[in-house]
Design a protein that fits this description.
Elements lengths: L3 H22 L17 H13 L16 E9 L3 H10 L7 E8 L6 E8 L6 E4 L17 H14 L4 H8 L29 E13 L7 E11 L17 E9 L5 E8 L60 E6 L14 E4 L7 E4 L24
Antiparallel strand pairs: 1-2, 2-3, 3-4, 5-6, 5-7, 7-8, 8-9, 10-11
């Protein structure tokens, strides 16, 4: 028996290795397609990973539903991209296809020190191993950084009901709604991200960035002068200064700026880009306009957790072309909140749904997409049609 044990061990190892290679080379989503190495997990693979995690008794997993967060739950299962070196060897040199793996994020709330841990599960579609993924340097995930669960929403709602109980009649008199005994007229709350873990973490200031012309001496010819455009940054210390009137030209960039800087030494900001602005419907000082004086206060807007009040809308005057169907091209309403020096690079480079159209000297354009060829086209071949009615006639 002692001599047969090593042979048996080698046989088991060989079977597992062949099984791993077979699964890595014959995944249903990667047959006949090099782009399939980047394919997302299929429904069958997701179910297989979930079943494998639940079979591991050492994880002590429990369903995410419930009234407590003191338990271990699976938060996310997604595709774990293989190492770049392995992918290049497969794509450029025809070497073995990298094994497909999944990333599983588990919330360990039942431990003495709750934590968030990432695991690699593979090989797919029949996983049999689990390994811990080390966090990236400087990106250690804290327990308080996780999204709020349904159990915490219930507790938060209960806390709000108790805290606002003395204001029950006040809410009814001012809004007609309340948190207690409200039946169909109940106040609701909205949890807004990003969340701060300590006082002052979300501190920002408001400033504008525009262009102005300056008359300077020509550095190459001091006896002459030249006019050149330059950027002008303006900070606002009070709310009234940052209130822009209807119909006035807005500064080019409206920025909410953090004191923190990015890798290039620029303050991390978000750019408020307004697509449309509604006309003023009430004259200043009118009786209804005075009802919301909180919107025109002169509180200081120095670095703190700022809130932006953005007025958007459009004026549509009915005309004969609105019959029988009102066309709405150009009647868009809204605004964008875009990063401005917030990231160190374009965040779309990490997109998994990228489509690039390359022009050719002859023939049609070349469409490059990172999806399996057997997955179908990235658009529907059937043209869209609409006859202007709510229901087909």
């Amino acid at each position: 028996m002692r001599r047969e044990s090593p042979a048996l061990s080698w046989a088991v190892a060989a079977v597992l290795m062949l099984q791993t290679l077979a699964m890595a080379n014959h995944s249903p989503q990667t047959l006949g397609s090099q782009a399939g190495v980047f394919a997302d997990l299929s429904t069958e693979e997701l179910k297989a990973v979930r079943s494998f995690l639940w079979s591991r008794k050492d994880l002590r997993l429990e369903p995410s539903q419930g009234s407590t967060i003191a338990k271990n739950t699976v938060f996310l299962i997604e595709m774990l991209l293989p190492r770049k070196q392995q992918v290049l060897k497969f794509l450029d040199h025809g070497q073995r296809r990298p094994a497909r793996e999944a990333r599983a994020i588990i919330f360990f709330g039942a431990q003495e020190h709750p934590n968030i841990t990432e695991f690699a599960v593979g090989p797919l579609p029949r996983p049999h191993y689990l390994r811990t993924l080390p966090p990236r340097p400087g990106h250690q995930m804290s327990w308080t950084s996780r999204p709020i669960s349904s159990a915490e929403y219930v507790q938060l709602s209960h806390t709000l009901e108790e805290a606002t109980r003395p204001l029950h009649q006040f809410f009814l008199d001012t809004t007609g709604f309340s948190f207690q005994d409200c039946h169909t007229r109940c106040l609701t709350f909205t949890d807004v991200a990003p969340r701060g873990l300590a006082s002052g973490e979300r501190r920002t200031c408001f400033q504008t960035l525009g262009m102005k012309l300056e008359n300077i001496t020509n550095p190459w010819s001091p006896e002459h002068r030249l006019v050149q455009p330059t950027l002008e940054q303006t900070g606002y210390s009070r709310e009234r200064q940052a209130a822009f009137r209807f119909g006035r030209t807005l500064p080019k960039y409206l920025l909410f700026t953090s004191p923190k800087e990015n890798r290039w030494g620029h303050q991390r900001s978000y750019w408020l880009q307004i697509h449309s602005m509604a006309e003023q419907v009430l004259p200043p000082g009118w009786q209804e306009e005075r009802a919301f004086t909180w919107a025109s206060t002169a509180h200081p807007s120095l670095p703190q957790d700022l809130v932006a009040w953005v007025t958007v809308g459009f004026l549509h005057i009915p005309h004969s072309e609105d019959i029988p169907n009102t066309a709405t091209p150009g009647n868009s309403v809204g605004f964008l909140l875009r990063p401005f020096n917030f990231f160190t690079e374009d965040p779309s480079v990490a997109s998994r749904d990228t489509v690039i159209v390359w022009p050719r000297d002859k023939g049609p354009n070349y469409v490059q997409r990172w999806i399996p060829e057997e997955g179908g086209d990235c658009w529907k071949p059937t043209p869209f049609s609409y006859n202007g009615t709510y229901r087909p006639v």
